[in-house]
Amino acid sequence: MQFSKMFVLNMGMLITIAYLASVFYKYIVIRASSRVKQISSVFALIFAGWISTVFGFQLTDEVVFDLRYVPLIVAVMTYRQPYSVIIVGVGIGLSRLTFGITDATIAAVYNMAILGVMCAGLNIWMRRSSYRLIVKGILVTVIVNVVNSVNIAFLGVIPPAYFFSHIMPYTLPIGIVLSLIFAFILRDFQNEQNRILLIQSTNRLLSLQKEELQKAQIVLEDRAKQLMIASQYKSEFLANMSHELRTPLNSVINFAQMISENADTMEQEEIIRFADMIDQSGQELLRLINDILDLSKVEAGRLDIVLEDISLNQLVEDAMNHFQLVADKKGIELVLDKKAGLPDTLWSDPQRVQQILRNLMSNAIKFTPQGKVTLTVSTKQTKQANIVSDWLVFSVQDTGIGIPEDKHHSIFEAFQQADGSISRKFGGTGLGLSISRDLARLLGGSIELESAAGEGSIFHLHLPLTVKK
What we know:
Layout: H1 2-27, H2 34-54, E1 57-58, E2 64-65, H3 70-78, H4 82-95, H5 103-128, H6 133-155, H7 160-262, H8 268-300, E3 308-311, H9 312-330, E4 333-338, E5 345-348, H10 350-366, E6 372-384, E7 387-398, H11 422-426, H12 432-442, E8 446-451, E9 457-464
Parallel strand pairs: 4-6
Antiparallel strand pairs: 1-2, 3-5, 6-7, 7-9, 8-9
Helix pairs in contact: 1-2, 1-7, 2-3, 2-4, 3-4, 3-5, 3-6, 4-5, 5-6, 6-7, 7-8, 8-12, 9-10, 10-12
């Protein structure tokens, strides 16, 4: 009867320790690394074996009966590393020495060391066996209890005959029953912990999915906003384009009708003047159509680039001469600044380089009510990833209305300008900068912008200085 009370008391202590260990794990250890969790669990099992000895049944001054081997059964069923099981067994055995070094404590150390090695083998067998977990648990429990009893009989200080006849008939069945009960309680507790961890993992996953959905929603809203803005820009573009096309087309039609209806009465000089106006309107109409065609070709990848030697002096003189009259009429000073060290020729496409310069200078003059427009030509050397590159830089600077910093990117997009009312006020399709940027890329260069609202603008066209191939 004393053995039964002692074992039940031991079982209660083990369950209490298991609960405290679970609380400690739940609120403290769970945040630690896997290595810390492993070490903490080993110490918890050794401590449980020591507590079981503290509350064991004191048969004599040296002999204590308890369930110190139950934590070893737990180790067999939970650990994946056999060496951890051996450490638990040896650790529980060595903890017995805290009660003093006697024949009984030395025997206890040997007993637990033997059980530890045997349980390591059982651990390997459990992981490789195809039996159901409950069957493997029962077999491990029975084997550990039987081997423990045999070890006590032959290694302990109690005579084997007396132990087999008077003690083992009580301790073995009670130990097996209580060990199984504790194992099943622990297994149920472990399953509950696994369910909690699964719920927590699911909640974390749902939280991540919620965040991803929110991010996706933000992206979709942003794209919807961009589509709405793009639609607005295209609507403004179509409105501006209809106006831009209608103006020169009406001029062509009106002047042609006037010449047709009044040819007999009109003087030769008046006819020539009307013909010049028709020619100018036609050229303006052709320029608008060419802008649209160039944009379509660039987007379709069908714009041909023809490289050849370009006279740099001729290039800048043509650009200056083309806009000199327009600048004079508007009262704007047109300045050319050529820096030292410029090459004589440039290997590029003369038509496309001229087109870019004309777009940049046309915008500079158009958006400059007063002041001056300066075309600066210089060279520049850059180094990136140990690669040195030489560039020819055309800088078009004006003293006009400037461009807000938040619009620096959008003005290079097709159909967009810094302000939707700009086209209505100054005219134009809004395609010039987009085409110029794409042409610069096709030529191996780029366009950079420096500007602020009300402080004028500087557009830098960088073209590579390459040798003729």
